[in-house]
Specification:
The protein is about 40% helix and about 15% strand. It is α/β, with parallel strands linked by helices. The longest helix has about 40 residues, at about 255-290. The protein binds pyridoxal-5'-phosphate.
Protein backbone atom coordinates (compact mmCIF):
# COMPACT_ATOMS: atom_id res chain seq x y z
CA UNK A 1 0.00 0.00 0.00
CA UNK A 2 1.32 3.45 -0.80
CA UNK A 3 1.71 5.81 2.06
CA UNK A 4 -0.68 8.74 2.07
CA UNK A 5 0.66 12.09 3.24
CA UNK A 6 0.19 14.00 5.46
CA UNK A 7 0.18 11.44 8.26
CA UNK A 8 -2.03 12.19 11.28
CA UNK A 9 -0.21 11.64 14.58
CA UNK A 10 -2.08 14.07 16.81
CA UNK A 11 -4.79 11.85 18.28
CA UNK A 12 -4.42 13.45 21.72
CA UNK A 13 -5.74 16.67 20.14
CA UNK A 14 -8.67 14.97 18.47
CA UNK A 15 -9.56 11.72 16.75
CA UNK A 16 -11.45 11.12 13.52
CA UNK A 17 -14.99 9.85 14.01
CA UNK A 18 -15.21 6.09 13.58
CA UNK A 19 -17.43 5.37 10.52
CA UNK A 20 -19.50 3.02 12.70
CA UNK A 21 -20.19 5.99 14.99
CA UNK A 22 -21.29 8.16 12.07
CA UNK A 23 -23.57 5.39 10.83
CA UNK A 24 -25.23 5.13 14.25
CA UNK A 25 -25.75 8.90 14.36
CA UNK A 26 -27.18 9.47 10.89
CA UNK A 27 -30.86 8.56 11.47
CA UNK A 28 -31.01 11.00 14.38
CA UNK A 29 -30.46 14.01 12.13
CA UNK A 30 -33.46 13.32 9.91
CA UNK A 31 -36.13 10.72 10.56
CA UNK A 32 -35.52 10.28 14.30
CA UNK A 33 -35.30 13.94 15.24
CA UNK A 34 -37.60 14.05 18.27
CA UNK A 35 -36.76 16.02 21.40
CA UNK A 36 -36.33 13.59 24.33
CA UNK A 37 -38.08 16.22 26.44
CA UNK A 38 -41.30 15.77 24.40
CA UNK A 39 -43.11 13.32 26.62
CA UNK A 40 -46.41 13.15 24.71
CA UNK A 41 -45.54 11.53 21.40
CA UNK A 42 -43.54 8.79 19.77
CA UNK A 43 -40.98 11.18 18.25
CA UNK A 44 -39.98 12.28 21.75
CA UNK A 45 -40.00 8.72 23.09
CA UNK A 46 -37.72 7.62 20.27
CA UNK A 47 -35.27 10.39 21.21
CA UNK A 48 -35.49 9.44 24.86
CA UNK A 49 -34.83 5.76 24.08
CA UNK A 50 -31.75 6.72 22.06
CA UNK A 51 -30.39 8.87 24.89
CA UNK A 52 -31.13 6.12 27.42
CA UNK A 53 -29.27 3.59 25.34
CA UNK A 54 -26.26 5.93 25.03
CA UNK A 55 -26.34 6.56 28.77
CA UNK A 56 -26.08 2.81 29.30
CA UNK A 57 -23.19 2.52 26.84
CA UNK A 58 -21.24 5.36 28.50
CA UNK A 59 -21.95 4.06 32.01
CA UNK A 60 -20.89 0.56 31.08
CA UNK A 61 -17.47 1.76 29.84
CA UNK A 62 -16.65 3.20 33.27
CA UNK A 63 -18.50 0.78 35.59
CA UNK A 64 -21.17 3.35 36.52
CA UNK A 65 -24.93 3.25 36.77
CA UNK A 66 -26.65 4.98 33.86
CA UNK A 67 -28.38 7.39 36.24
CA UNK A 68 -24.94 8.73 37.14
CA UNK A 69 -24.15 10.02 33.63
CA UNK A 70 -24.75 13.68 32.74
CA UNK A 71 -24.35 14.61 29.08
CA UNK A 72 -22.41 17.80 28.38
CA UNK A 73 -20.69 19.51 25.44
CA UNK A 74 -17.30 17.98 26.26
CA UNK A 75 -14.65 17.83 28.94
CA UNK A 76 -14.28 21.58 29.33
CA UNK A 77 -17.90 21.82 30.39
CA UNK A 78 -17.76 18.63 32.48
CA UNK A 79 -14.74 19.99 34.38
CA UNK A 80 -16.44 23.33 35.00
CA UNK A 81 -19.66 21.74 36.24
CA UNK A 82 -17.74 19.34 38.49
CA UNK A 83 -15.18 21.74 39.97
CA UNK A 84 -17.27 24.87 40.41
CA UNK A 85 -20.38 22.85 41.25
CA UNK A 86 -18.64 20.84 44.00
CA UNK A 87 -16.73 23.83 45.42
CA UNK A 88 -19.91 25.85 45.72
CA UNK A 89 -21.88 22.97 47.21
CA UNK A 90 -19.30 21.91 49.79
CA UNK A 91 -17.91 25.34 50.73
CA UNK A 92 -17.42 25.85 54.43
CA UNK A 93 -18.93 29.31 54.84
CA UNK A 94 -22.56 29.28 55.84
CA UNK A 95 -25.17 31.68 54.50
CA UNK A 96 -24.36 35.28 55.44
CA UNK A 97 -20.75 34.48 56.36
CA UNK A 98 -19.32 36.41 53.43
CA UNK A 99 -16.82 34.95 50.97
CA UNK A 100 -16.94 31.22 50.21
CA UNK A 101 -14.26 29.21 52.00
CA UNK A 102 -12.65 25.87 51.44
CA UNK A 103 -9.44 24.30 50.20
CA UNK A 104 -8.99 22.63 46.81
CA UNK A 105 -6.04 20.50 45.66
CA UNK A 106 -4.98 20.25 42.02
CA UNK A 107 -1.65 20.20 40.14
CA UNK A 108 0.28 22.60 37.92
CA UNK A 109 0.22 20.39 34.80
CA UNK A 110 -3.56 20.01 34.54
CA UNK A 111 -5.32 21.06 31.34
CA UNK A 112 -6.47 24.70 31.28
CA UNK A 113 -10.03 23.40 31.53
CA UNK A 114 -9.20 22.50 35.15
CA UNK A 115 -6.68 25.22 35.98
CA UNK A 116 -8.88 28.11 34.88
CA UNK A 117 -11.96 27.06 36.90
CA UNK A 118 -9.61 26.66 39.90
CA UNK A 119 -8.22 30.15 39.33
CA UNK A 120 -11.75 31.52 39.14
CA UNK A 121 -12.60 29.86 42.46
CA UNK A 122 -9.45 31.32 43.99
CA UNK A 123 -10.63 34.80 42.99
CA UNK A 124 -13.95 34.07 44.67
CA UNK A 125 -12.27 33.23 47.99
CA UNK A 126 -11.34 29.53 47.85
CA UNK A 127 -7.79 28.43 48.63
CA UNK A 128 -6.12 26.28 45.95
CA UNK A 129 -2.94 24.20 46.28
CA UNK A 130 -1.23 23.46 42.97
CA UNK A 131 0.89 20.33 43.47
CA UNK A 132 4.14 20.09 41.54
CA UNK A 133 4.98 16.65 40.18
CA UNK A 134 8.60 15.55 40.01
CA UNK A 135 10.39 15.14 36.64
CA UNK A 136 8.36 11.97 35.97
CA UNK A 137 5.07 13.92 35.99
CA UNK A 138 3.25 11.54 38.34
CA UNK A 139 1.05 12.84 41.16
CA UNK A 140 1.10 10.30 43.98
CA UNK A 141 -1.23 9.60 46.87
CA UNK A 142 1.53 10.77 49.24
CA UNK A 143 1.73 14.17 47.52
CA UNK A 144 -2.01 14.69 47.87
CA UNK A 145 -1.95 13.45 51.45
CA UNK A 146 0.80 15.96 52.26
CA UNK A 147 -1.37 18.81 50.99
CA UNK A 148 -4.63 17.75 52.72
CA UNK A 149 -6.01 20.16 55.33
CA UNK A 150 -8.98 20.10 57.67
CA UNK A 151 -10.82 22.43 55.30
CA UNK A 152 -10.03 20.52 52.07
CA UNK A 153 -13.29 20.05 50.18
CA UNK A 154 -12.20 18.93 46.71
CA UNK A 155 -9.29 17.19 44.99
CA UNK A 156 -9.04 17.35 41.20
CA UNK A 157 -6.21 15.43 39.53
CA UNK A 158 -6.17 14.34 35.89
CA UNK A 159 -5.92 10.63 35.15
CA UNK A 160 -3.56 10.84 32.17
CA UNK A 161 -1.82 14.01 31.05
CA UNK A 162 -2.61 15.26 27.55
CA UNK A 163 0.93 16.37 26.68
CA UNK A 164 3.09 13.63 28.15
CA UNK A 165 0.60 10.79 28.65
CA UNK A 166 1.77 10.24 32.25
CA UNK A 167 -0.69 8.40 34.50
CA UNK A 168 -1.14 9.56 38.10
CA UNK A 169 -2.07 7.37 41.09
CA UNK A 170 -5.80 7.86 40.63
CA UNK A 171 -7.34 4.87 42.49
CA UNK A 172 -4.96 5.51 45.41
CA UNK A 173 -5.77 9.24 45.52
CA UNK A 174 -9.47 8.37 45.32
CA UNK A 175 -9.13 6.00 48.28
CA UNK A 176 -7.42 8.74 50.30
CA UNK A 177 -10.20 11.20 49.46
CA UNK A 178 -12.84 8.72 50.55
CA UNK A 179 -11.01 8.11 53.84
CA UNK A 180 -10.99 11.86 54.45
CA UNK A 181 -14.53 12.57 53.16
CA UNK A 182 -13.23 14.84 50.42
CA UNK A 183 -14.85 14.94 46.98
CA UNK A 184 -12.59 13.52 44.25
CA UNK A 185 -12.82 14.64 40.61
CA UNK A 186 -10.63 13.38 37.78
CA UNK A 187 -10.32 14.77 34.28
CA UNK A 188 -10.16 11.43 32.46
CA UNK A 189 -10.36 12.87 28.94
CA UNK A 190 -7.15 11.16 27.81
CA UNK A 191 -7.68 7.96 29.78
CA UNK A 192 -11.25 6.77 29.38
CA UNK A 193 -11.84 4.49 26.43
CA UNK A 194 -8.16 3.58 26.27
CA UNK A 195 -7.70 1.76 29.57
CA UNK A 196 -10.04 -0.15 31.91
CA UNK A 197 -11.98 2.14 34.23
CA UNK A 198 -14.27 1.35 37.13
CA UNK A 199 -15.49 4.35 39.08
CA UNK A 200 -16.25 2.12 42.08
CA UNK A 201 -13.00 0.23 42.49
CA UNK A 202 -11.07 3.31 41.31
CA UNK A 203 -12.78 5.44 44.00
CA UNK A 204 -13.96 8.26 41.71
CA UNK A 205 -16.74 10.72 42.66
CA UNK A 206 -16.74 12.88 39.53
CA UNK A 207 -15.19 12.03 36.16
CA UNK A 208 -14.98 14.10 32.95
CA UNK A 209 -14.79 12.61 29.48
CA UNK A 210 -15.11 13.81 25.90
CA UNK A 211 -16.42 12.27 22.65
CA UNK A 212 -13.83 13.59 20.25
CA UNK A 213 -10.87 11.93 21.99
CA UNK A 214 -12.39 8.46 21.60
CA UNK A 215 -13.44 8.41 17.92
CA UNK A 216 -16.80 10.02 18.66
CA UNK A 217 -18.10 13.43 17.57
CA UNK A 218 -16.87 16.81 18.79
CA UNK A 219 -19.02 18.96 21.05
CA UNK A 220 -20.33 16.15 23.23
CA UNK A 221 -19.02 14.63 26.45
CA UNK A 222 -20.14 13.37 29.80
CA UNK A 223 -19.71 13.90 33.50
CA UNK A 224 -20.03 10.98 35.89
CA UNK A 225 -21.59 12.05 39.19
CA UNK A 226 -21.56 9.44 41.98
CA UNK A 227 -25.03 8.77 43.43
CA UNK A 228 -24.23 6.43 46.30
CA UNK A 229 -21.57 6.07 49.00
CA UNK A 230 -21.27 9.05 48.99
CA UNK A 231 -24.00 10.82 47.03
CA UNK A 232 -22.33 13.81 45.38
CA UNK A 233 -24.28 17.03 45.09
CA UNK A 234 -23.38 19.95 42.86
CA UNK A 235 -24.57 23.52 42.45
CA UNK A 236 -25.67 23.75 38.80
CA UNK A 237 -23.96 26.39 36.66
CA UNK A 238 -26.76 26.76 34.19
CA UNK A 239 -30.47 27.11 34.85
CA UNK A 240 -33.28 26.29 32.47
CA UNK A 241 -35.37 23.26 31.60
CA UNK A 242 -33.83 21.11 34.35
CA UNK A 243 -32.55 18.37 32.03
CA UNK A 244 -29.87 15.95 33.22
CA UNK A 245 -31.16 15.84 36.80
CA UNK A 246 -30.94 19.63 36.91
CA UNK A 247 -27.14 19.55 36.58
CA UNK A 248 -27.14 20.66 32.96
CA UNK A 249 -30.21 22.36 31.54
CA UNK A 250 -30.66 22.54 27.79
CA UNK A 251 -32.16 20.37 25.04
CA UNK A 252 -30.03 17.27 24.64
CA UNK A 253 -27.71 16.91 21.64
CA UNK A 254 -29.29 13.58 20.68
CA UNK A 255 -27.17 12.88 17.58
CA UNK A 256 -23.97 13.68 19.44
CA UNK A 257 -25.05 11.63 22.44
CA UNK A 258 -25.86 8.62 20.22
CA UNK A 259 -22.37 9.01 18.71
CA UNK A 260 -20.72 9.22 22.11
CA UNK A 261 -22.56 6.09 23.24
CA UNK A 262 -21.50 4.13 20.17
CA UNK A 263 -17.91 5.36 20.54
CA UNK A 264 -17.88 4.07 24.12
CA UNK A 265 -19.27 0.70 23.08
CA UNK A 266 -16.55 0.33 20.45
CA UNK A 267 -13.81 1.35 22.89
CA UNK A 268 -15.00 -1.22 25.41
CA UNK A 269 -14.90 -3.96 22.77
CA UNK A 270 -11.58 -3.02 21.17
CA UNK A 271 -9.57 -1.42 23.98
CA UNK A 272 -7.41 -4.42 24.85
CA UNK A 273 -6.17 -5.24 21.38
CA UNK A 274 -5.82 -1.55 20.48
CA UNK A 275 -3.69 -0.88 23.55
CA UNK A 276 -1.19 -3.65 22.76
CA UNK A 277 -0.92 -2.62 19.13
CA UNK A 278 -0.40 1.06 19.93
CA UNK A 279 2.13 0.33 22.65
CA UNK A 280 4.22 -1.69 20.19
CA UNK A 281 4.06 1.16 17.66
CA UNK A 282 4.95 3.79 20.24
CA UNK A 283 7.94 1.74 21.39
CA UNK A 284 9.07 1.41 17.80
CA UNK A 285 9.25 5.19 17.39
CA UNK A 286 10.94 5.71 20.76
CA UNK A 287 13.49 2.92 20.19
CA UNK A 288 14.42 4.24 16.77
CA UNK A 289 14.83 7.84 17.93
CA UNK A 290 16.70 7.00 21.12
CA UNK A 291 19.03 4.47 19.46
CA UNK A 292 19.92 6.65 16.49
CA UNK A 293 20.24 10.09 18.08
CA UNK A 294 22.10 11.44 21.07
CA UNK A 295 20.85 14.23 23.34
CA UNK A 296 17.21 13.16 23.20
CA UNK A 297 14.88 12.50 26.09
CA UNK A 298 11.50 10.85 26.30
CA UNK A 299 9.58 13.02 28.76
CA UNK A 300 7.68 11.69 31.74
CA UNK A 301 7.68 8.43 33.66
CA UNK A 302 9.24 5.54 31.68
CA UNK A 303 6.38 3.10 32.39
CA UNK A 304 3.38 4.99 33.77
CA UNK A 305 2.40 6.40 30.38
CA UNK A 306 -0.45 5.99 27.91
CA UNK A 307 0.38 3.48 25.18
CA UNK A 308 -0.44 5.74 22.26
CA UNK A 309 1.40 8.91 23.26
CA UNK A 310 5.02 9.94 23.48
CA UNK A 311 6.68 13.29 24.06
CA UNK A 312 10.31 13.58 23.01
CA UNK A 313 12.74 16.49 23.40
CA UNK A 314 15.66 16.91 21.01
CA UNK A 315 18.71 18.88 22.11
CA UNK A 316 20.49 21.21 19.67
CA UNK A 317 17.61 21.72 17.27
CA UNK A 318 15.29 24.65 17.03
CA UNK A 319 11.66 23.68 17.60
CA UNK A 320 10.14 25.64 14.73
CA UNK A 321 12.72 24.31 12.25
CA UNK A 322 12.01 20.77 13.41
CA UNK A 323 8.26 21.24 12.86
CA UNK A 324 8.94 22.67 9.38
CA UNK A 325 11.27 19.81 8.48
CA UNK A 326 8.65 17.22 9.48
CA UNK A 327 5.57 19.03 8.27
CA UNK A 328 4.08 16.06 6.43
CA UNK A 329 3.55 14.48 9.86
CA UNK A 330 0.82 16.16 11.91
CA UNK A 331 2.16 16.33 15.49
CA UNK A 332 2.12 18.86 18.33
CA UNK A 333 5.13 20.87 19.38
CA UNK A 334 6.32 21.70 22.87
CA UNK A 335 5.50 25.33 22.30
CA UNK A 336 2.17 27.04 22.58
CA UNK A 337 1.34 30.09 20.55
CA UNK A 338 0.18 32.88 22.81
CA UNK A 339 -0.87 36.18 21.31
CA UNK A 340 2.58 37.72 21.21
CA UNK A 341 5.11 34.95 21.45
CA UNK A 342 5.89 31.28 21.34
CA UNK A 343 5.86 30.04 24.94
CA UNK A 344 7.43 26.75 25.98
CA UNK A 345 4.82 24.26 27.17
CA UNK A 346 3.90 24.84 30.82
CA UNK A 347 3.52 21.09 31.24
CA UNK A 348 7.11 20.37 30.21
CA UNK A 349 8.31 23.33 32.27
CA UNK A 350 6.33 21.91 35.19
CA UNK A 351 8.44 18.75 34.91
CA UNK A 352 11.60 20.81 35.04
CA UNK A 353 12.41 20.54 31.31
CA UNK A 354 14.43 23.64 30.32
CA UNK A 355 12.97 26.22 27.90
CA UNK A 356 15.22 25.18 25.00
CA UNK A 357 14.41 21.50 25.26
CA UNK A 358 10.71 22.23 25.83
CA UNK A 359 10.66 24.27 22.60
CA UNK A 360 12.28 21.45 20.65
CA UNK A 361 9.83 18.77 21.76
CA UNK A 362 7.35 16.76 19.79
CA UNK A 363 4.16 15.15 21.06
CA UNK A 364 3.36 12.17 18.86
CA UNK A 365 0.01 10.50 19.49
CA UNK A 366 -1.11 7.43 17.57
CA UNK A 367 -4.60 6.16 16.92
CA UNK A 368 -6.97 3.45 15.75
CA UNK A 369 -5.87 3.62 12.11
CA UNK A 370 -2.17 4.39 12.52
CA UNK A 371 -0.18 1.81 10.55
CA UNK A 372 3.29 0.37 11.08
CA UNK A 373 4.29 1.84 7.73
CA UNK A 374 3.31 5.32 8.94
CA UNK A 375 5.24 4.83 12.15
CA UNK A 376 8.38 3.73 10.26
CA UNK A 377 8.07 6.70 7.94
CA UNK A 378 7.62 9.16 10.80
CA UNK A 379 10.49 7.76 12.87
CA UNK A 380 12.87 7.88 9.89
CA UNK A 381 11.76 11.37 8.97
CA UNK A 382 12.29 12.69 12.50
CA UNK A 383 15.77 11.16 12.78
CA UNK A 384 16.73 12.52 9.37
CA UNK A 385 15.38 16.01 10.17
CA UNK A 386 17.19 16.21 13.52
CA UNK A 387 20.47 15.08 11.91
CA UNK A 388 20.16 17.67 9.13
CA UNK A 389 19.40 20.49 11.56
CA UNK A 390 22.29 19.50 13.80
CA UNK A 391 24.64 19.50 10.80
CA UNK A 392 23.94 23.23 10.64
CA UNK A 393 24.33 23.81 14.37
CA UNK A 394 27.65 25.21 15.66
CA UNK A 395 26.48 24.45 19.20
CA UNK A 396 26.07 20.78 18.38
CA UNK A 397 29.63 20.77 16.92
CA UNK A 398 30.92 22.23 20.17
CA UNK A 399 28.95 19.69 22.17
CA UNK A 400 30.55 16.90 20.14
CA UNK A 401 33.98 18.35 20.84
CA UNK A 402 33.22 17.91 24.52
CA UNK A 403 32.50 21.55 25.35
CA UNK A 404 29.75 22.03 27.93
CA UNK A 405 27.63 24.48 25.98
CA UNK A 406 25.49 25.36 28.98
CA UNK A 407 28.56 26.82 30.73
CA UNK A 408 29.53 29.20 27.90
CA UNK A 409 29.19 32.84 28.83
CA UNK A 410 27.91 34.62 25.75
CA UNK A 411 28.95 38.19 25.24
CA UNK A 412 26.69 40.76 23.66
CA UNK A 413 28.34 43.18 21.23
C1 LIG B 1 -6.98 16.49 29.56
C2 LIG B 1 -7.98 17.30 28.81
N1 LIG B 1 -8.95 17.92 29.48
C3 LIG B 1 -9.88 18.66 28.86
C4 LIG B 1 -9.87 18.83 27.49
C5 LIG B 1 -10.94 19.64 26.84
O1 LIG B 1 -11.88 18.77 26.24
P1 LIG B 1 -13.03 19.27 25.26
O2 LIG B 1 -12.34 19.59 23.98
O3 LIG B 1 -13.94 18.09 25.14
O4 LIG B 1 -13.69 20.43 25.87
C6 LIG B 1 -8.87 18.19 26.74
C7 LIG B 1 -8.79 18.41 25.29
O5 LIG B 1 -7.78 18.81 24.75
C8 LIG B 1 -7.90 17.42 27.41
O6 LIG B 1 -6.93 16.80 26.76
Amino acid sequence: MTLKLPIYMDHAATTPCDPRVVEAMLPYFTEKFGNPGSRNHSFGWEGEDAVDNARRQVASLIGADRKEIIFTSGSTESNNIAIKGAANMYQKAGPGEGKPRGHIITEIIEHKAVLDPCKRLEKEGFDVTYLEPGPDGVITRAMVEGAMRDDTILVTIMWANNEIGVISEIPEIGALCHEKNVVFHTDATQWVGKAPTDVNTDNIDLLSMSGHKIYGPKGVGALYVRRRRPRIRLVALQEGGGQERGFRSGTLNVTGIVGLGKACELCAAEMDSERDRLLALRKKIEDKVVSELDVVQVNGHPERRMPHLTNISFGFVEGESLMMATKEIAMSSGSACTSASLEPSYVLKGLGVGDDLAHSSLRISLGRWTTEEEVDYAANKIVEAVRKLRDLSPLYDMHQEGIDVSKIEWQAH
